[in-house]
Task: structure prediction
Amino acid sequence: MRKIFVAFVAFVALLFMQFNAPSAFATNLIAKVSLSSQTMTVSQNGFVRYRWKVSTARRGYVTPQGSWSAKWLSRNHRSRKYDNAPMPYAVFFNGGYAVHATFDLKRLGRPASHGCIRLHPDNAAEFFSLASQYGLKNTKIVVTR
Result:
């Protein structure tokens, strides 16, 4: 009887560790951006947590497709390239490309940017906070058609 109890406790402990400890081998926070649907789906440890409208590159500009780890964060960033435009809660992932907040809310859900991935300010703040919490190397941005 004692062997069964010990085996059961070990099994429960293993399950607890699996579901509560972040994996050292996998990216813990993944933001999948769909250019065709203009949405970003954020998953934590394999579970979808958020699905938000975004704005990506409008005609004449490009949002790069691919997969990157987050590179750096800037809470109150301003664009040097585009007339000091505000880019709050910026999570940079590929050179000057970032996921960041926009105040042009009526254009969310359709292409409108110079190439960055723009979110509602509340959603950008949440993603920025998650990227800070999980760490840049554990935050992945995936952009697909």
